[in-house]
Every structure is written in structure tokens, then in C-alpha cells.
Amino acid sequence: MREEEQQGESRFSALAGKYLTFKLDKEEYALEIMKVQEIIGLMPITVVPRVPEYVRGVINLRSRIIPTVDLRRKFGLAAVEDTDRTCIIVVEVESPRGKVNMGILVDQVAEVLDIKAQEIDQPPDFGTNLDTAFILAIGVVKGEVKIILDVDKVLTTEEVRAVETIAEN
Amino acid sequence: METISQALQDAKPGDISTVGRLLDLFGALTVTNAARPIFRAVSEGVTELLSRIIMDAVPDTEQSLTNIREAVAILAGHTGEGDLASFEGFSAELGLSATKLGSPASDGAAASPVVADAAILGEFVDQYRRSLEEMETFVLRMETDGDREALGRFRRILHTMKGESGFLGLGDITTVCHETENYLEEADPNFKFGTLLEVKDWLASAIGDLAAGKAISRKPDSLLATLKVAPAEGESAPPAEAAAGPTPPPPPAVEGKVYPLTADASLLFDFVMESKEHLALANTELLNLESDPANEDALNSVFRAFHTIKGIAGFLDLPEIQTLAHDAESLMDLARKGTLTLSHHVIDVIFEALDSMGNLIANVKTALEGDGTMAADPDLPGLLESIGAAATGEPGPTPPVEPSDQPLGALLVESGACTNEEVREAVAKEQAQPTGQKLGELLVKNEKVAPIQVAEALRRQNAEREPQPSASPPKADGRGAAKMRESIRVDYERLESMVDAVGELVIAEAMITQDEEILQIRTESVGKKLHNLRIIARKLQELGTTIRMVPISGTFQKMARMVRDLARKSGKEVVFHTFGEETEMDRAYVDKIGDPLVHMIRNAVDHGIESPAERKKSGKPPAGKIQLGAFHEGGNIIVELRDDGKGINQEAVRAKAIERGLIAEGDRLSTRETFQLIFQPGFSTASKVTDVSGRGVGMDVVKRNIEELRGKVHIESEVGQGTVFRIVLPLTMALIDGMVVRVGKERFIFPVLSVVESIRAESGMVHHIVGKREMISLRNKQLPLYRLSQLFQIPGARSEITEALVVIAESGGQQIGLLVDELVGLQQTVIKSLGMGFGQAEGVSGGAIMADGQVGLILDVPGIVHLTQKIYRDSEVES
User: Fold this and answer.
1) Are the Cβ atoms of A55 and B857 closer than 8 angstroms?
2) N or C: which end of chain A has fewer CB within 10 A?
3) Minimum-distance CB partner of A50 among B746, B832, B842
């Protein structure tokens, strides 16, 4: 038992560090701070036809075009009206084609948080559900649950697959 | 003398050839005036100075030339002897540059005019006493470890001494120095060091005499005799590693040897860059020369290219390049003097020399990037030999040649150079074991015939093929008139980011000047400032689009060479002509258009142009014509390739397409659609595969490459008349001319290149067929009509066709109608990628930042066509 705990600790010690947390529906999620480029308020989004519906469209970030994903739609949550707290977190993700920037649309940014190794636990096993593949771990800080996301998987794997499926058809 | 004055007027510091001409003239002057010490001394001095100018070893070329001009002016008015003081500037210059060259010999000469009085003589003596000691050390160093550097220094002292003693009227010293120089040249590298020491001893005694105020007591006669005999005896050769030294003449290249690069790396890099330009130019001019052997400008240009490379290579210690350039230059020189006829064989040899030179220069670059040593080129000695053979192969004026188009073998037999059996044997051998050599080469190699006999026969064979000189006017005229422009090299990426920034600035400007709040400020001063801002932004935008534009001439030059080689290979005769080389286009195009052009030209030579016999049969001149040109047309760049060959047989294309299952037996295709079939992968109507083309790869590559450049290819062809390929490219890569349309609340950009026209449909034009499918009749053509709002599922679009706009778009020869709400305007936009993931989004090729700062999507018409077919298929499956 003791051994297992130690093993667990060493496994998660690599995950310990600073996270940006944001709110989506009723839950709080965490993104590794190193992946975050900037946080911007909501701006006009150009809809792109014939892409997966969770892709809200593209934005113009200082003359760079950044695709933006609506995380509510991605996670299958009920759609809500955008509010003045709705914002876009621009992250840098690894993709098969190298580093790219993407925006993720969230309800509200919460805080920057230090999560220690002993506060991190592995996610519950839901079987082979792909929807949870991008959950890296669960952090419990002062009794509150933070879902730690593997941002590379959230924003690329699924999309690449989706786009490939379209192309195959 | 008049000629010299004239040549001096023409001499320009930057132009090596004019200086080279001067050098020749003064060399002649030295010989003809050997009896007149002053003339000889001055012209020898000038010769020395001129060689330094060529080697770029003088501090101020213009000044040196001025000094020479002065000296010549005095010389021209000079009748008697004496009065050497007049040559002040020029001799000071000589002294100065001698110092620069590292010889301590002439320190004094730099400061004082050389006058034949006691004081000056005294100075001469003082200097050379020290130099003589050095000379002895140099000789010893040469003997013990074959130090070439020492040889060079030794020679330089001799040379300066020769010049200065000439000024002073010390005839014996001058003669000894001169003869020793000759000896060094002839005996190299088998010197008799004893003889060199004898020279030094004699000079020491002579200078000793002068120092004592006496005349030179020992006559140099016996020494001179030794110097003349010596070369034949050559007993002690210096060790082999002496072979790579910095001094002219270049040591012979030793096979398998590795040369260290000793010169400064940045100088070498500059040399590589510069030489490439020289070679490219020489290639072009040589082609001109081939079609018009009387073109002196072209001849001189090629000569100059070799000459310049030789000079710099010598300076940078690149013996192989120097040797090759030297030999090639000598060959060209014979042609310039009219003692060598530029036969096809000679031109071939020069082309080979150019190629080999290119390789050597590439080796220098590789060596620079690698370990700093370059291996000797094993092929070089062979090439040098053939250059030598070409130079001696056809001496004297060309006898009139009887034209003949008989095969070479027949000609050789006819002229009695060899027998029928020998030719047959050589041919059989080559067929059994191909070595890639030509018949003539084979026969020469097997010692059946002499090279000159082959050359003679080839000349006869070519005499008929020679195009009329009048048919191709020398192009050099236009080139000469072209304005020299100053330019600097700029890192491409830096340029890219600047162009990007300019693009962004233009957008930012539009956002400011069209901002609603700002528009409400109606004071005159703000208006003026905004207007000013707009003007500057427009100017920058124009510059931004043109800054990356370069002329296409470089690409065309390469093609000219290729056509020549291909024609030779396939036994066809092709006259290649280009126009519009000066047309400027995006640098990215110039780089990328090369590949497709290569494929197209290969096709033209191999499949388009018929063999001379076939052409004769169909009443065409035996030589086919291929024309490559570039020009601007309606905001696009057109690159056109035209041949007068057999054209594309539509029936053959059709049959092949049916055979390959690309179309069905009953399919009706327009001419245009039929021609587009040849762009299908693996499509080839060629019945035989040659080593040039015919494997059916190629045209699909052409099409793909050009579509990558957002261009189109059109084909026009008439059986028996020839084929025209027309590549249509947008002006630049980074910008497209866009037509902005609105659908619902969304805006889209059509690349203008994909749009045929846009029309407002009248109700009678649109028909519904098979349920939901719509069709529009346009001038008796029925085009499928799609609603962009449906394809892209955009809400709120106008549904009444008569209120909306139909854009007729085209892709791959197929036209479709697309229904949009309205035309918003025309706009030049910078194309940007949409980023990860939707790179493949069908129907959209990228995005652009619109004037209001939002992203607009650029439509991909080929993608839309594909999409419509898919949706149509899906809906059929459903129903």
C-alpha cells in the first residue's frame, strides 16, 4: 500500500506546477501554464464551413489567423449565450505538423494555481471512452476538484481524426 | 602608340577585359622597342602594374590608370633618351604596390622619382643589397623544402629589379633578371639551384661594382648561356608537395591530391557567388556564339568570364580552377584572333569546360562548408587535354567546307581517314558495351583516325545545319543597353517578414481610415493626415508587392542550355528563342517554375519536334523552333512555350484515355477537356520511352506545380502545326486579387483567377432538373448551379435566384455557377493559412484579414467542384 502511494507520487510529481484554471459549466478545469500564450476577450469569430461543429471558427489575432474551439460543444455541454466573461485562451499545442496556436473558448477564467504532486490523482477509469483520453489527472486543491487537461490531445487528436474522416468520405 | 592611347581611354577600372587588352598592347611594345631602354622599361613597368590591377593588388585602380595614362602621354612625346624623372607618378605607384606585395625591395622608390644620377643609383644599390641576401635564403628554402612561396618572393624581387634597372639604364642587370625570369618559367619545377645562386652571385657582384662607383665589371654572357641551356638539364626536382603553391604559373594538378583552401573564407564565398554569375553569363553567350560564330561581343564575354575567374582563382590560390580557366581562355583567345574556327566541337569543349568549372566552383563551396580541403578533379586532366586538342586541332584559316548530312562514319571513310570495317567495328563495340562516347571519339581513342580528321568531318557534317547568322540577330545589343542597377543581397526571410509587416500595416491603415468614430471627425487637418497615411500605405504596399520580383532571365538561360543538350541527344535540330526575359515575377515563382518548364521543354523536344527527315517530308524546315517567352497580361504573368512540331493528336489522346479508363467510349469532350487529359498522372501517348521522356510522369507534375503556384495551364495545339502551352500565374504569391462576396452574414473571397464572370440571373435562365438539382443556361451552355449557402450551410441567405448573384467559376476546364447574395467589392489580400486542422477544410483554401479586422475566407474553387460532386453522390445514395 505504502509502496503504491509512493509510486503514484513519483508518477504525478512531473505534473506538479503552475496551472491556469477556468470554468466551464459547473466544473473547473486546469491547463498547464506553459502551454498558455495569452487570454483575450471575446472577439468576432469567422465561421468556417464544413468543419466539426465544436470548431467555432477563426479569429484574427494581430494578423495571425487562429482557429478557435468551443470547449462546451467539444465536451458535449449545453450551449449558452456568450457573456462578457466568456473569453478565449490562446494555447500552443503540439501537432503532427509542429507547434501551432489555437484558441479555446471558455465560460470564464478562474485563477493561476500551484498544484502539488500530492494533490494530484489519476482520473477514474471509465473504460475505453475516448472522451476522457484528454483528461491527464485530477487535482484536489483545498477540497475542490480541478480537472487537469492534456491540451495537446483536447485540441488536436480529435480534430485530426475528424478532418481525416471527412477527407476519407 | 595611338592604339594604346585609345585603349587607355577605354580602360575602366572595373572592366578586366579592357585592362587585359592594354596588357597585350604593352607586351607588344616591350618587344618592338627592345632597343630603346626607356620605352622598354616603361612598358615593362606598365605591364607589371597592369597585372597587379587585374589581380586587384593595387590600392586604387583609378589612380594607377591615371599614372599609366600620364606615363604614356610623356612617352608619346618622347624622342630621345633620359628625362626619366617625368614618369614620377607611375613609378611611385609601382614602388608602392611592390611594397604592398610584400617585397621590401622598393621602399625607397615609392618616395622618390627614379633618376639616373648617383643619389638614385645609391638608393637602388642599398635596396638590392638587402634583397640579394633574401634571394639567397629563398633559393635555399626552395631547394630544401620546395617552398613555392619562396619561389614567388624570389621572382617578385627579380621582376621589380628588372623594372627599376631598366629605368636606370642598367642594361646588363635588366637582361639577367629577364632571362632568369624566363628560366624560372621554363624550368619549373626542375630548377638547378646552383644556377639560381650563380644569378644571385652575379647580381651581387654587379651591385657591388655600382656601389663602388664603377661600371659593371663581369660580363653576364656566360651566366646567360647557362640560363638558356639549363632547362634541358634539370637535375634536382623539388619534392612533390611543392605542387600546390600560390604563384603563377599554376602548378599542374596532381591526381588524387587534396588541396587545402588557404585564402580567406569570405573572399572564397564571394568568389563562388561571383563565378556562378560569370558562368551563367558565359553559358548564354556561348549559346549565342554557337548560333552566330561571328558574334564578337559574345566571344569577348565568354573570354572575359574565363579571364576574370582565372585572375581571381590565382589570387585565391585555387590551382585547378586557374589552370582550367587559363586553358579555356587561351582557346577563346585563339578564336578571338581568328586563328581558330568555332566549330561545334570546339563549342562542345568550351561547354564542357564551363560545366567542369561549375563543378570545381561547387567543390570550393562544399570544401568551405566542410573541412576546408578539396579533392583534385580526376576528370580535369582529360578535359585539359581536349581543350589543348581543340586549340591545335584546327589551326589556320578554315578551308571552305562542302556541306553534307551524311553520317560521320561515312564521311570519314569517304575522306580516306579510315575504312568501313573500322567504323563498323567501333559501332559494334559501342553497342555491345556502351561507353557513352561518340563515334568520332571512339575512333580517335582506338587510334584509327586523327582528331583533326574527325573535326574536319564534323565540320562538313555541321556546315549544312548551321543556321543562317542573319536569322538570329545578336542579342548582346539589348543587353548592353540595359541599365546597370545597384543592388544588395538581402536575407530572404528578413524580406518575407518585412513584406508581411507591410501587408499588416496596410490593413491597419484601412481599419483606421474606415473606423466609424474616426470618420465622424470631420476637421480638415485630420482628413489631410489620414489622406497622407493612406498614400504612404499604398506606396508601401506597391513596394511590398514588387520588392520580391526578379527577372525570369536566369530560368530561361538554363532552359536554353537544356534545349541544346536535349536536341543533340535526340538527334534533332532545334532553334531555341526566348523573349521577355526581363519580365519580373515573384522570386518564389522563378524558383518553382523551373521544374514544370523542364518537363514541358523535354516533351516539346522529344515528342513535339519531329526528326529532320520527318520535318522535310511534311514540308517544314529541318530545324524545329521552340520559343519560350514571358509577358504580363491583364494582371497576370504569362509564361508561354511554343513549338512548331507535330502537335497533339486529339484522337490519340482520346484513345489512350479510353484505354486507361479515364473516360468512357461515348463521352463527348471539348478540345479543351481533351487536352486537359494529358495532365492526368501516368498519361503518355508516346509509343516509345526514351531516356528523356515518355514514361508518362511529367505533365501531372507540371499541373500540380503550377496549381501550387495558384496558376493555370492552357494548351492550344494544331496537328502538324505545333503546340502552345500557356502558364497563367498571378502577379505574386503572397497577394491575390480577390472578389469579395456576401452570403448571409458571411463574407467569402473568390480568387479572381478562378472567376470567369458574374451575372445577375434572370428567371428564365435557371431550370430545375431531377428534383433539387439546378442548372443555368448561359449562351447555349448548360452549367450546374449550386448555392453556396447550401454547400456551406449558411443561414439567412437570399433564396430568390433573381435577387442574388451567380458567379461562374472555373477549375480544370470545368465551369460551375455558384449562387451568392451580392458582390461586396474587389480587394487585394494577403493569403494566410487557417492554421492547424482546417487546412483541409473543403472549399476553403485559406483566410485573409479584411478591412474591418475580421477574417475572410478564401474560396477554393477546385475544392468546391469536388465538394459538389460528393454531395451529389451522397444525395443519390440517400434517394
Assistant:
1) no
2) N
3) B842
- Report the C-alpha gap between B174 and B155 in whole angstroms: 14
Q: Is the pLDDT of residue B627 over 90?
A: yes
B618 exposed, middle or buried (CB, 10 Å; 0-12, 13-18, 19+)? Answer: exposed
**Which residue type occupies B152?**
G
- Give every CB contact of residue B626 below 8 A, 6+ residues apart in sequence: B563, B574, B575, B576, B577, B601, B604, B605, B608, B609, B641, B642, B643
pLDDT computed for residue B682 by the predictor: 66
- The answer to whether the CB of A106 falls within 8 A of the CB of A84 is no
Its sign, for the CA torsion B185, B14, B4, B342, is: positive
Encode B568-580 in three state secondary structure: HHHCCCEEEEEEC
Rounded CA-CA distance A114/A8 in Å is 19
Whole-angstrom distance, CA of residue B360 vs CA of residue B182: 30
Closest CA of chain A from B795, distance in Å: 12
Find all residues with CB under 8 Å of A58, minimum gap 6, and list them.
A45, A46, A48, A65, A66, A67, A68, B834, B835, B838, B847, B855, B857
Least confident of A70-74, B281-285, B453-457, B745-749: B453-457
Q: Pairing relation of β-strands B814-820 and B781-787?
A: parallel
Q: Do B838 and A55 touch (CB under 8 A)?
A: yes
The pTM score is 0.44
Which residues on chain B place their C-beta less than 8 Å from a C-beta of chain A?
500, 503-504, 507, 746, 791-794, 832-838, 840-844, 847, 849, 853-857, 867, 870
ipTM score of complex? 0.81
Instruction: Identify the residue whose cell numbers are 590551382.
Output: B319
Pairing relationship of beta strands B746-751 and B855-859 according to DSSP bridges? parallel
What's the rounded Cα separation, in Å, for the pair A27 and A80?
15
Q: Which range has the worst mean pLDDT, A150-159, B354-363, B578-587, B650-659?
A: A150-159
CA distance B460 to B409: 12
d(CA B438, CA B382): 16
Question: In this complex, how many residue pairs, one in chain A and one in chain B, have their CB atoms less than 8 Å apart?
Answer: 89
Summarize pLDDT for B826-859 with one digit per residue, the tens.
887 777 777 755 445 678 888 888 877 789 999 9
Q: Peptide bond preceding B189: is omega within 30 degrees of 0, i.e. cis? A: yes
Q: Which of B838, B842, B853 sits opposite A60 (nearest CB)?
A: B853
Question: What single letter denotes the amino acid at residue B521?
Answer: I
The verdict on a CB contact (< 8 Å) between B836 and A63 is: no
Which chain A residues are closer than 8 Å to B794 by Cβ?
Answer: 47, 49
Residues on chain B touching A66 (C-beta within 8 angstroms): 835
What's A97-140 look like in SS3? Answer: CEEEEEEEEECEEEEEEEECHHHEECCCCCCCCHHHCCEEEEEE
Contact A59 B504 (CB under 8 A): no
Q: What is the mean pLDDT of chain B?
A: 73
pLDDT value for A106: 94
